[in-house]
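Repro case for the chain-ordering regression, as requested:
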Amino acid sequence: MEIRAIGCEPLQLKRMHIKDSHTLKVYLETGGYKALRKALEMSPEAVIEEVKKSALRGRGGAGFPTGIKWGFVPRSSPKPKYIVCNADESEPGTFKDRYLLERDPHAVIEGMLIAAYALGAKTGYIYFRGEYRYLIEIMDKALEEARAANYLGENILGSDFSCEIYTHTGAGAYICGEETALLSSLEGYRGHPRMKPPFPAVEGLYGCPTVVNNVETLTAVPQIIEMGGEEWRNLGTEKSGGTKLWSVSGHVKKPGVYELPMGYRDMEKFIMEDCGGMLRPDKKLKAVIPGGSSVYIMNADQIIGKGVTMDYEGLVAAGSAVGSGGFIVMDETVDIMESTKNLTEFYKHESCGWCTPCREGTDWLVKIFNRIAEGRGRPEDAQLLLDICDNIEGKSFCPLGDAAAWPIQSAIKRFPEDFKKWLFKNVNKDEIVANVYAE
Amino acid sequence: MATALPTDFTNQVNYTDEVAEFPPEVIEEMKSHLKKYPPERKRSALIPILFIVQRERGYIDPPGVNFVAKFLDLTVTDVWETATFYTMFHFRPIGKYHIQICRTLSCKIMGEPEITEHICRKLGIRPGETTPDGKFTVSMVECLGSCGTAPMMQINFDYYENLTPEKVDQILDSLQ
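-- result from build under test --
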């Protein structure tokens, strides 16, 4: 598996290939905790200002501007404030955080400390998905080392800033990657999302102001403080600052974690050259899911020769989204009806059951997909799937419902042949009346 | 929820008033988790402590749940409510080695079906079942964050990546 930066100096991946990069010793030798020292000499407002200038957007999937999120926290509130690192990486196709946590845990700690300082938080939690048990062990050791060297605890580095960070484990639930569900889980409840507003920045963990940030978002923070927000933003584009990690999987020769500057051009070159091209050279590119399973699937025509720019604006213009950067490449051997069925089963399994559109909707979607896969598909099933998606999208309590609908909507529109093949099997085409594929 | 194990249904559990007991070092380990949270927020330690109960007793059983409820000043229902939400908790005994095969898209297109068939054929069980000697349980699970090294499986808490049938043989044969 490849781990490397293309088109920029490795920032997020700086320590990936250094021996013992998870230790405090190596972290300090490679410039670690410099940014924390610098931040402690700045005012908290100035730290937030730098992050705003950097145009850093949440790397977990939603892409909300991090500086603005931090700005929502009422610093004057008498309640304790919390910083929570979302290490519940579960979006299908995404595995970048795993390598950051494994090989650069101190960068996560430093990012959290800077955030805590900016927000006035004295406590931080790192919420790991339950399956990442070995990463919790690595992080606990890193926290211990940091504590012993006074990077954590009381009066950090002689300042009047004090902060403690703890690890916490989930137990197998995709929904806990949604920030309010994560907080429910961290409080020891079922991982049900909560109503927004109030947003976590005002009422989060234990009803106190809380910021929840993705691992990759937090590891970017020390870089931003060290080089300055503006310079960091200039690595990318005006609206999409900095660099981004892409987790590449599927039918390419060199899957792995790639760091690209935002605005990298273009997606075709990325697949065909940087990732080594198609795994089986005689098989053509068929589809790409560029940002984790919850974004629109793209067909080859949207990529080949289109010069797709890999950043927030570029991917939206190309008909998809950056999401979490889980980049799944599929060649022509993949049947998109089957791949969409696979993802729909995922969403059905992971629906938390809290709201009706998502719980019932995903269940019915899977029932229809099962019927299609058993060879009993009907021509009107495509429309039926779209109708159900329409009753989920925008009507569910949290974005999981949207995430379940989008892959299906895009697949039906962009890969009609793969669906027609299943739906029109035993039907005389002239008899078809109501149908999404009818002329 | 839960296609992971067909036995994950608490309505099949025989409830009891019995309270589990744990050795002092395990109690200490549980207390170490309590220290992470504000004193009035003990419930936050529920998931970490349920993992310890599962490790010690093999699965989440009614005496274990009764213990946790007492330990954290919760009702027994509170504990069941949280425990049954999460797929990593089991409510029936499972094999010594829990083979969790990732079935989500990246693994699927990179050869998961072949790996699953090979494992099931080798062990003579289907996903969701345990071998008669109680050694292996096979489950199909959702994305484990190892897509670049697909296909993959997790056995208990260890990751095994870039699987081939030959590699699976070596791994399973090495487990005692």
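Ordering looks correct now. The CA atoms of residues 8 and 67 of chain B lie 20 Å apart.
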